[in-house]
Input
Amino acid sequence: MKREDINIRDPFILPYEGKYYLYGSRGSEVWEDNATGLDVYVSDDLENWSEPKEIFTRTADFWADRHYWAPEVYAYNGAFYMFASFKSADRCRGTMVLKADKPDGKFTVHSEGTITPPDWESLDGTLYISKSGKPYMIFCHEWVQVNDGEMCAIEMSADLKRAVGEPILLFKASEASWIAEAQKNKGIYVTDGPFPYRCDDGTLLLLWSSMGEEGYTEAIAVSDNGDIDGNWVQRDELLFKKDGGHGMIFKTFDDKLLLLLHSPNKHPLERPAYFELEDKNGMLYVK
Output
């Protein structure tokens, strides 16, 4: 398959041992109430991809039947861990952790339920390791429940099976200057797709998405102490503002720094898109 043939939202790439593994929310099922699984695509060059391989399959006893969203896979402590969000008709959306022994292996449930609070509508959990080595999940407390979407974090146990303590609030979507006036008028402020990135000079950034004047966006918040518990300041200038978002950052095997996001943000036209980045003076810029 060519990249332009792949219809997914919320793309995530894991470079591992000479191959690129692409995960995302299935375009065909993303808004449906009968989700069946999650896939991986594999590539050597980021343009030519394998057919999708199902790596998580809904079983009869699995609690969620819809909205299998935003899978992210990390190599951690000798195994591969997937953070993905799920929902059912009678339970809040939340992010769980799944586990496999290889990046395209069969993932099975690892965490003890959702890491996000069970009575919160939450999504888009991503892994962050603090300066002291503690794992955290950064996630969104969704606007459908709180109107002013929140970006939160919660400490996890070292084995990634459970939450430790209570969530901490990083910031609210309304703190961003660039939020579209139409959203403000409705009193709705979306938070989507957090992804932490540490700059070469040690500055900690958090990519996240919402709705700007030109559509879905990729924005940046900056921690004032270089860690998860700092004060987060919103950058006024967007990293990407024209109808694309839910991004992440990875390095290619030839050491290019790439932003990956889905664009456009219209079903069923979503495709993975890359943009080369420059890491300069504690900030990211599209080249």
Summary: The chain has two helices and 22 strands. The helical segments are 143-146, 181-186. The mean pLDDT is 97. The domain at 3-190+251-277 is CATH 2.115.10.20 (Tachylectin-2; Chain A).
